[in-house]
Design a protein that fits this description.
heterodimer, A: mainly beta, seven-stranded mixed beta sheet, 0% helix, globular, B: mainly beta, five-stranded mixed beta sheet, four-stranded antiparallel beta sheet
């Protein structure tokens, strides 16, 4: 298996622009997680899905952030409009039901908002 | 979830065992101890987990004290590629799904 795939790996954009991050979880995994990592706040859970349904989005910082999972093999995290404080590394992770704490992480998307 | 305490940094000589401690004095009966690590510029990687018995896999060993208030992750023969931040996480897998990574221990393996 190729593992969790994220794209793009790097994104540089200007403040106010829309940013879309993409994730393909490991095939057969039921849970998908979006995390954000910064030096100041460390690794934070933003939202997670179970069987494509959002379960907990309490970590989503504000309405500018939205996440979707239209099918079992694809999820997006959108920031609109983006701000410099959104600059961070965004990780996607997936896991199987029953072993959901064993999460497998993607390589991350490094976002820089100028 | 129980809070964990880890030393912020440790050094280990290449080829020697790296012993990373974690305190979780408020752990409850249903909570497991999980270890992840994050190598620079990569996503976190699962290492091992346990409830009360010691565990071993191809990556590491996990020693949990009898009272379960602390544990130690052991890398038996550390290599330079083991340099990473190691996170000890205590979670009830039947509860709400929120892995709290904390600040971890930055392990530096020295040649």
């Amino acid at each position: 298996d190729a593992g969790v795939i994220q794209s793009p790996r790097h994104e540089v954009t200007e403040m106010g622009q829309e940013v879309t991050l993409r994730c393909k979880p490991i095939s057969g995994h039921d849970y998908l997680f979006w995390y954000r990592q910064t030096m100041m706040r460390g690794l934070e859970l933003l939202i997670y899905f179970n069987n494509n349904v959002p379960i907990d989005d309490s970590g989503m910082p504000e309405d500018r952030f939205s996440a979707k999972m239209p099918n079992a093999s694809f999820s997006t995290l959108k920031i609109q409009p983006s701000e410099p404080r959104d600059s961070a590394v965004y990780f996607c992770a997936s896991s199987k039901a029953g072993t959901r704490e064993t999460q497998y992480f993607g390589p991350g998307t490094r976002l820089l908002v100028l | 979830d129980a809070k964990t305490t880890q030393p912020p940094s440790m050094d280990c000589a290449e080829g020697r065992a790296a012993n990373l401690p974690c305190n979780h004095s408020t752990i409850s009966g249903n909570e497991y101890v999980y270890w992840y690590r994050q190598i620079h510029s990569q996503g976190p990687q699962y290492i091992i987990h346990g409830l009360k018995n010691n565990e071993t896999n191809e990556m590491a060993s996990l020693i949990i004290t009898e009272d379960r208030k602390s544990s130690t992750l052991i890398l038996p023969h550390a290599t330079l590629r083991d340099t990473a931040v190691y996170y000890c996480i205590v979670r009830d897998p039947t509860g709400a799904n929120n892995l709290f990574f904390g600040t971890g221990t930055r392990l530096t393996v020295i040649p």
